[in-house]
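Hi everyone, sorry if this is the wrong subforum. Our group has a chain we'd like a structural model of before ordering constructs, and none of us has done structure prediction before. Sequence below.
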Amino acid sequence: MNSCISSRMKFYCTALLAGVFMSLVGCANTQPSISQQVTEELVGSTVSPDELRVQLERLGAEGVLSQVDIKETDPPLYRVTGPQRVIQCLKSSQGVWREDYKECEFMSLQTCEALGGKFNGCASPCRHQPGMACITMCVPVCQFQQQ
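Answer:
Right subforum, don't worry. Here is the predicted structure as tokens:
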């Protein structure tokens, strides 16, 4: 009798653990990776020039964003498709994506870490212009690995 209960308990415990594992794997697979293409709707500005629009047009021309649809409303709406880290950068307040350096200026620490980036809360605004006279000012930057 003891071996019967022991065998049954092992079976149920194994089944329970397998179910938990499958649930966790399923949840992990539903999260988009940082390089996966996502589509988001962003709200532009009524102030001219609309800095978000300027940036979207530049990133579209560079091939960073695979789709940029503009809805001429007040304020304008943009439906964009591109890598998750780029879209999250654009959603950040004053976020600026620098494709040459795979970095986002003004992204929060929490968003940066959630996307697997390396956060620098006090980068130089002239960090990519060595030898140039520069103001003393901190720019929060999230840098990603080159792919």
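For your construct planning: Residues 2-30 form the longest helix (29 residues). Strands lie at 37-43, 67-71, 77-83, 96-98, 103-105, 118-123, 139-143.
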